[in-house]
Amino acid sequence: MLSRSNCVFCEIVQGKRPAAIVWQDADLMCFIDKYPMNPGHSLVIPKKHYALMTDMPVSEVGKLFECAARVSRAIFKALKPDGVNVGQSNGKAASQTIFHVHVHIVPRFKGDAKEGFWPQRKRFTEKRLNEMARKISEVIETT
Question: Do the Cβ atoms of 87 and 104 come closer than 8 Å?
Fold first, then answer.
């Protein structure tokens, strides 16, 4: 498996860093963002290290977004948000800060962004992050 020793997400895949895991299979992993914009803000990543989506084989990109769709459905079922943003950035100019491909799935609630478009990032305990992950994973459709 391709990985980078200095990549935070590769360290999560390898079990070297904790994460509130929602779902995973042999190729993909989904976990709660450590500093979520809203409860349930999830990241879907390939387990192989790719800095940009354009580095990935097209077939793997398809699987990544298929998983993002499943997680989005589960978030709607589990958390009952008013909406969901799905986002993916490639490159520094596009606001990418961790150079391991990832898709953000952000539950949105009416009035959640006081200034601007995005809600402020929040800090939750590890226990609370794991509770969010469990709630979503209980309703995720894996087939």
Answer: yes
